[in-house]
Protein 1
Amino acid sequence: MKIVDVKLGMLQVPLVTPFKTALRTVECVEDVIVMLETDTGHVGYGNAPATAVITGDTHGSVIEAVRKIYTPLLLGRDVADLNSLTRQIESAMINNTSAKAAVEIALYDLFAQSYKTPLYKILGGGESSLTTDITISVDYIDKMVADAENAVERGFEILKLKVGKDIGLDIERIKAVYAAVKGRALLRLDANQGWSPKQAVMAIRGLEEAGVLLELVEQPVKAGNLEGMRYISERVKTPIMADESIFGPHEVMDVIQRHAADIINIKLMKTGGISNALKIADLAGLYDVECMVGCMLETSIGVSAAAHVAAAKAPIVSKLDLDVPSLCQFDPVVGGATYKDADIILNESPGLGIEKIDGLQLLA
Ligand code: MG
């Protein structure tokens, strides 16, 4: 199965309500879509959102990387040479992890299709039924409580609260949501780098002393502040998770060896795709460090790829944060994994199982 064409498109999906974190507000999911076409008539799909505040990638940088670096690298190549290709994708340019992820996801999709097997089975198998949390955007307290109540009624048992904008208000928000859903849902927090190390210790200890049980606190301080992450991890009982602090396996090793976090958040757009995500899960497994698999604000193509990885790497991947399809007004991707509130069901059709994408605008 040889790659004969690389096509690019843009895909937009409106969110039900704006997504608000300490870093940004987003109203619409928008991806660059990569399609790898083969001499056998198969198509592999990959995607990349622009998440400049986290990865540095924009739609323009992704498109340029795919056109200038990855199209010449892939044309004429046999999909069967997966490992050699992923090594070359990784070393062809530094950074640009979203472009790498888009190309790798499409390549893994094709590789699994070439064996007529769902992606998660090619990656080692696992359960086809998964459960995700849902994100509650940072907002007025009443709005966050109402959103949390609504999520619990939809069947979500884990809520991820976005905090990190104003620490005093954050504590009030967390206490109010906790009181509203206590016993019905578990809370995890994501401060998206919004606190200082001392603020984080004060806030988390204060919540612990007030009897607010949190499953974990994600990325309390700036991505580059691993010492700060370690400072917090040493001083609180609540598990601390590294998200923006880690991209590839090297950062994960650093975090683990410095005891800077208890849990690792793997996202394909940070790792540069599936091969590094698998390496990270294996590395973390060596040290019994749990992982979560998360996603960016992106379409269900990449979310599904992440879900296939999560299924194959259970139980070291013990947590999922793959709620974006449930935050979108509709799913333009036909075929593949299905999303119904907290439930994700992986496809039994080959690869990612994508049949077509509605509303895709091809780039010339
Ligand atoms: Mg996060």
Note: Residues 190, 192, 218-219, 243, 265 surround magnesium ion (CB under 6 Å).
Protein 2
Amino acid sequence: MGYVDEVIERVIAKNPGEPEFHQAVKEVLESLRPVVEANEEVYRREALLERITEPDRQIKFRVPWVDDKGQVQVNVGYRVQFNNAIGPYKGGLRLHPSVNIGIIKFLGFEQIFKNSLTSLPIGGGKGGSDFDPKGKSDREVMAFCQSYMTELGKYIGADVDVPAGDIGTGAREIGYMFGQYKRIQGMFEGVLTGKGLTYGGSLGRTQATGYGLLYLTNEMLKCNGIELAGKTVCVSGSGNVATYAVEKAQQLGAKVVTVSDSTGWVYDPDGIDVAALKEIKEVKRARLTEYKNYRPNSEYHEGRGVWSVKCDVALPCATQNELLLEDAKMLVANGCIAVAEGANMPTTLEATKYLQENKVLFAPGKAANAGGVATSALEMSQNSERLSWSFEEVDAKLQGIMVNIFHNLDDAARKYGHEGDYVVGANIAGFEKVATAMLAQGVC
Ligand code: NDP
């Protein structure tokens, strides 16, 4: 059995009941075969793949808090510090009832390569809790965030581990967590990113993941002789990533006709109204059923269905495993030419394979959604030099980073004989830098 297969088997045996983590490891390691085969003797001796698939540490803790009725509630908190070979751990905090250790590990593992691809000095980590901010009062969210940070605060720091937002963790949650960290440590430092603009946040961070997704998609299309302007786009999700993906796609001349949430989806033949979307989701924190009140021409459907709509470009921006094989088949049948992942691992392995076999350009999340973490790293730089850059400066840097990421993965894919396979390219380009750093740092 080859080294890659041995390590995949070992990961599955040693991490039972963590299918998302197995899926992520499989996807990455299988596409690294060309590099691993070229360096097998050294990698085996140094146990490089065993080390890179085992987190530096996994922290799991109790998060007790008091709800508005005076009842004590208990959630589970996590932080997985996966790999700091090229910089302090960096990765978001997910607050969602589906969160478990396997999900956090899959996200942390992906984050290592994503962060490396940005070319900025950040390692990989991820955290979160099974707490559900939906339907909670601001006071309850604050009580949870303070309790969560009371424990997490022992393990993080501006040069150690710098968490950020993710599903369920937006500006409100980051604010409460930052306040508690400051209070406990007696220190104002850039320990979290995605902070508010009045206390160390970066202009452009809110938009970064969605905008970055479009900068990379645009470059990918351009390099394949296709224009984004005039194309029809389907977006899933209606959170941070989705909203700003819709905004930038429309600024670049495309028409976005769908958005979704966990209960249903909207089809707007005239193009999604971003101002209405922001008001519903960011201001009212309401459901998408309200969208029809703003746009009577639109349709609301319960359940899944975004990928059944005819489009040129599909941008999954909600959550993992939301684009299945049957969806990929519908996209191909409807003439879709490109899929770029705004969410982390939204496309299943079978769906990805089907899309690639059918010549759909496919940009994996670790490259396509790296704009968020890249801008977080820019926030860290601004915090370190105690300066704030203008929106234009941050946005220009983001564009440069995303264009550069695309060319790095395009080049890596070519170098190893997989031209046009951006999954292989992204994994190899991200891995090579981390592997070189790990080998240089000895057995640790
Ligand atoms: P938000 O919480 O802002 O939005 C998430 C969206 O996805 C909501 O519309 C939500 O619907 C929907 N969703 C969540 N879970 C499910 C589910 N199980 N089934 C169907 N829909 C679901 O999160 P973000 O926009 O920040 O994150 C979206 C994705 O992008 C995640 O995979 C995240 O890891 C990834 N990402 C985020 C970055 C960032 O900077 N924010 C950076 C890089 C990646 P509802 O409102 O009904 O829950």
Note: The mean pLDDT is 97.
